[in-house]
Amino acid sequence: MLSSIPDHIRSGLSILFVGYNPSLRSGETGHHYANPSNRFYRLLYASGLTDRLYTPSEDGDLLELGYGFTNIVSRPTKTADEITKEEYEQGRQTLREKIEAYRPYIVCFVGKGVYEQYSGRRNVGWGFQTEPVVPGVKEFVAPSSSGLVRMKLEEMADIFRQLRKALDAKV
After folding, report:
1. What is the dihedral angle through the alpha carbons of 156, 158, 164, 169, rounded to the nearest 10 degrees?
2. The model's pTM
3. Beta bridge partner(s), residue 109
4. Residue 7 within any structural domain of the chain
5. Judging by DSSP bridges, how do beta strands 127-128 and 138-142 pair with one another?
6. Secondary structure letter of residue 125 according to DSSP
7. Per-residue pLDDT tens for 109-120?
8. E strand map for the chain
9. 89 in a domain, yes or no?
10. Could you tell me which of 150, 117, 151, 146 has the C-alpha nearest to residue 23?
11. Do residues 45 and 54 make contact, with C-beta atoms less than 8 angstroms apart?
12. Model confidence pLDDT, tens digit, residues 62-80
């Protein structure tokens, strides 16, 4: 059985990125968004959140930019469909505790389903949410960067650019 991968998290983050759970490849390598078909790091670069293209092995380096990583469920799986209801229930509570403890400026949920599992809300739109679960923390819903998602990279990057604009506007 593959082990979970470590969070990259600390207080004062600009953005905490929250995924469903690690892929099997991430479980093997110990790095976030490590599946070669995953477009996460390309999205960060295309949206202006990073000034160069990072690789999964550099995920810990992104802490220096103010970006952290965690997942709603820590068990690696081939697809998010393999996550159980019980794992989501436990993950929802654990994630809320992390957000309350570390208080990032923005929590970016990488996938609508991640936010729906966390918030209990349905039919949410892309972008910033009006009623955060944790008061005082901005919640942002972005498309999943999984290679299984059919959305074009540029369309996804447009949504991620809202994060860059929010950071630029931060006083």
Report:
1. -140
2. 0.95
3. 18, 141
4. no
5. antiparallel
6. P
7. 999 999 999 999
8. 15-19, 67-71, 106-110, 127-128, 138-142
9. yes
10. 146
11. yes
12. 999 999 999 999 999 988 8
Cα–Cα distance measured from residue 116 to residue 109, given in angstroms and rounded to the nearest whole number: 9
CATH assignment of the domain containing 47: 3.40.470.10
> How many domains are there within the chain?
1
Q: Show the domain range for 80.
A: 15-169
Q: Tell me if 105 sits within 8 A of 14, measured CB to CB.
A: yes
Say how far apart CA 27 and CA 21 lie, in whole Å: 10
Q: Which two tokens stand for residue 16?
A: 């905490």
**3-state class percentages of the chain: helix first, strand second, coil last, to nearest 5:** 40, 15, 45
Residue 5 lies in a domain: no
In a domain, 1, yes or no: no
pLDDT digits (tens, 9 = 90+) for 9-55: 999 999 999 999 999 999 999 999 999 999 999 999 999 999 999 99
DSSP lists the bridge partners of residue 142 as 110
- Choose among 145, 149, 144, 141: nearest CA to 123: 141
